Each structure stands twice: as structure tokens, then as C-alpha cells.
Amino acid sequence: MRPHDMGTLFDEAAAGGARTVVHLDRPFDIAPRAGTRWTVTELAGLVRATAARLADAGVGPGDRVAIVKDNHWDYDLLACAMVRLGAVPALLSARLDTADLVTLLERLRPAALVTTSEVLARCRDTAAGEPARILVTVDSAAPDAVHLAALDASRPREPVRRHDDEPLVIHHTSGTTGVPKLVVHSTRTLVHKLARFEAVRYPGIGIRPDDVLANASAYGHGRTFCWTAVVVSLAPAGILILTGDDPETADPLLRAHPPTVVEALPASYIRLRQLTTRLDNPFRHVRLYISTYDAVHPPALRAYLTASRRARPLWMQGWGQTETGPLTFRFHTRRSTLESDAETTARRLGRPVPGRTRLRAVDPDTLRPVPRGRPGLLLVRTPALALGYIGEVDRWDAKRVGDWWSTGDMGVHHRDGSVSILDRAADTLPGMSCLRTEDVLEQRLPRALECVILGAPDGDPLPVVVTADGRLDPDAWKQATHGLPTLRDPAVLTWDEVPRTGTGKVRRAALARQLTGAAPAGTGRWT
Questions:
Q1: Is residue 474 exposed (0-12), middle (13-18) or buried (19+ Cβ within 10 Å)?
Q2: Is the dihedral of CA 202, 203, 205, 207 positive or negative?
Q3: Distance of CA 517 to the CA centre of its chain
Q4: Cβ–Cβ < 8 Å for 378, 407
Q5: What is the DSSP secondary-structure string of 239-295?
Q6: Max Cα distance, the chain (Å)
Q7: Which of 2, 166, 229, 334 would be 195's cystine partner, CB 3.0–4.6 Å?
Q8: How far apart are the first and last CA of the chain?
Q9: What is the spatial distance between Cα 459 and Cα 81, in angstroms, rounded to a whole number?
């Protein structure tokens, strides 16, 4: 089966005989008493029942419905239920700052908000009025809101069909450089162009019927809605859902059902890495690791690839954006992560998808193409480009360059067709690549969980080193910075002291304000 309609995705998979068993690290928020083991048939029933409850609350065709809740895969189940009703789900991370969340809700103007009592209270404390006409809570009752479990699930609703080019779902960008953008995708862009392409059983990297897939993601973000379409339609033997990145919580589930394919946020790979060193590590059967959102650095790549007992495990690194879906892919092996230039090529993100994606580098001021091998602003052409931004039409139009789309990334389009990322345009500093400098530091500082370079309005850049205990040996730092551009003395923080997006990315502007009281140097023209 290839994905077609997200509103009936689970029904079609169940009718096709899918035997996938899903194991959760905690029960769904929309079914808290139903346990942690689910079949596809049971998931189809949950989506139908949830759609009936939302219809009972008053949700109907054409309504925008915002979802803001704790991180779990039922973000996507809720979205499928809303698509079934003909509504347009908007998935918003509960990790957003309250002010940013209220801003997005004001742009969205949803007919309904499905949320938790805590998030609803935060919004009410900040916003001028109620965030939506219909308020539904998933965890407990709240004043002037209806509790999802109290709504009537006994009257099933027939699926509402929509045109392939009509809005299907709304996601928001990571928000590393400021208030996230609300991105609208259609069935054509997200299902036909992205999910169907990925649902092909490619040799070596395609999902197999005997695979057990583990996912540790931010389920309110765009990647997992597409992932859901793919994995449900391909029906692997098992799916493991990790809602957090605490190693002690993840370990029992991974050990009970050792995965063969793992996809996780870069931040989750960092946090779970300690499991790779355990004697009976849970990654011993993995044949394929997948990462998106951000680069994973060579030390982490090596740790996970070495943890697998397969002869030739692969790591597939994708680069893309919420607006475009995946644009390039690169594969890593045990051997490639040991190459002498690994620390300088960690940001080489592979080649554009053949026949689907075109890339070019241009001068960011003149927008004229630059020669291959020279840094420039990266533009892309893809049939999977989203429909636009909610509430920011001018911003969307400003990122269109003729038939091309500005990614907002500075990079190099090499002569062999591959692409390297240097920096986000908003983070660019004269004479250095922040990202490459971060890669080198992480390579040279084994105790560092993460390194971040922040441009300062005056003087040298400020490095931030994240360690488990917030400590860093001065001699180790001195050795690590040998041969690098001049940097200030580092700020050393623990993981939880760093402001992050819902996908675990560092919110650089917020971190700079936290440490220096000023926004980082750079320009936001292409963000």
C-alpha cells in the first residue's frame, strides 16, 4: 500500500492486513488507560473514535484546529482524525515560549484548540482573549473547556475528501532564529511528493516487513506526519515510540524490542548515546540509522555505527526544511566516520534527490549564481514546496526568487553536485563558518555534548560548550582551539541550561541574549 489519504490511513492499512505492533514508552495522552501496545486495527479504531469526539465538540470541514500538548505520537493520530473530518490540523509544540505560542495562535485563528489544561492556562494568562471558540483538553477538565474523554465517540463520521491541492496540515518551523513560521502543506506536496517517494522499498534503505522501527522525535513537527504516512503504509513488524530522550526510560523498551531501523532527533541521539557503551546495547541489530533536522557529529556517528553488530550498518543523513521536505541525502559508514577529514566534512550533506530537487548557490546580495565550489546562499526548486506561510504572505513572497526558493542557508554547491552547509544566513560571521568550527570542537572535546558559536556585536565570537556537569578542563579547551579562529573564553553550561526548540535545536538568539544581553550578529533577511 502507498499512502493516499491521511484521514483513512490506518483503516486502509488494517484492511490490507498490516500486522505491525506498536509499543509506546508511555500511554497515549488521548487514551491514557489503554496501555502501551497497539495493533494497526486498534489504532484505526482510536482515530475513528477521536474524530467522532472532535465532531461532537463542533469541529467540522474547513476548520483550522490547533494541537498543543505533551510530546507523543498521538499528535499525528489527532491530526489524522481531524483530516478525516475535513478540518485542517495545525500542530504546535508545547515547548514554544508562551508569547510565541500566542503569536502563532493569533496568526492561525483556529476554530478549535486541542491542548492540556496547563497550556490553556498559560495562553489565557498571556492572550487578550480565548485562543479559540472550541476548547478541548486531553488531560483533565478545565473551566469553559470540554474534556476529550467526555465527548461522544459512538457516532462515527464518514471521511471527508478534499482536493489534493487544498490545505492538508500546518506545521511550524523550528524557530531557532525567532518566532517560528506556520507552514501549510497539501496532500499533493506532503503525501504525493514526499511520502510516496519515501515509501518505495529501495534496496538497503527501504523499510522491510521484518523491520522493527524505533523513533525518538518531536511529534508535533513536520517530519513525523510524513513518517507516519510512510511507516503505516509499509507495515513493518514493529514500531517503537520514544517520547523523550532519558536513557533510563528508553533502555527497557529498546532492549525488549531491539530495533533494526532507528530515526531520532540529533538531540536525542546525543542524549541516548551512553546506551551504545553498555555490554548488551540495544542498538546491536540496527542496520540503518536516520537523522534529519540538524547534523550529527562524527563522534556520535561512530558510536552508534560501532554499537551495531551488523556487518555494514548505514547512517542516512537528510537535509531539508519544513517548507520543502528532504532536499539532499548522504550516507555514512564506519569507515567514512574514521576518515582524516571527517571533522571538516560533517556538514557535507550529500546530493540533491535525482529528478526531484535542483539546487544552486547565489550571491546573497545580487542573487546571481556563484561558481561551483564558492560559498553562496542556497536556492532550491522542488515540487514538494509548501503552499505558504499563515499570516506572513509578504515573508513567503520575499523568499521566492523567480522559480527558486531561498533556504536561508549559506553553503557550497561542489563540482560533484554535493552540498555543504556553512551557516544559517542569520548566523553568518565574517571569515569563519560557525557550524564547521562547532564540528571541529566537538571532535576534539570528547566530554562535550554540544558546542555552539555565537557571533557577538563587538569582538570575537563567544563559544558555548555543553557538558554533562557544566565543567570543562581549561587545558583541554586550549588544545581544542589550536588553529581555529580567535574565540572568547567559553561559556560552559549543562544541557538543561540551554534554550531549545521543540526539536532540541539550540535557540541561538535566545542563548545569546541569555549570556550577553544582546542578539547575535548576523542578518535575518532570508529567515
A1: exposed
A2: positive
A3: 29
A4: yes
A5: EEEE-S--HHHHHHHHHHS--SEEEE-HHHHHHHGGGGGSTT-TTTT--EEEE-SS-
A6: 68
A7: 229
A8: 38
A9: 53
Per-residue pLDDT of the chain (527 residues; tens, 9 = 90+): 666 799 999 999 999 999 999 999 999 999 999 999 999 999 999 999 999 999 999 999 999 999 999 999 999 999 999 999 999 999 999 999 899 999 999 999 999 999 999 999 999 988 878 999 999 999 999 999 999 999 999 998 899 999 999 999 999 988 766 788 999 999 999 999 988 888 788 888 889 999 999 999 999 998 999 999 999 999 999 999 999 989 999 999 999 999 999 999 988 998 999 999 988 899 999 999 999 877 777 788 899 999 999 999 999 988 888 999 888 888 899 887 766 454 445 577 888 877 788 999 999 889 999 999 999 999 999 999 999 999 999 999 999 988 899 998 888 999 988 888 887 766 667 777 777 888 889 889 988 988 988 887 778 889 999 998 999 999 999 999 998 888 999 999 998 899 888 777 888 888 888 888 876 655 456 56
| Residue labelled with grid coordinates 555543504 | 420
The span from the CA of 77 to the CA of 28, in Å, is 10
Q: Are 404 and 379 spatial neighbours (Cβ–Cβ below 8 Å)?
A: yes
For 168, residues 6+ apart whose C-beta sits below 8 A from its C-beta are 6, 83, 88, 162, 185, 186, 187, 190, 191
- 482-508 b/e with 16+ CB inside 10 Å = b? eeeeebeebbbbebeebbbbbbbbbbb
Helices (H), 323-433: 342-345, 393-398
Q: Model's pTM, two decimal places?
A: 0.90
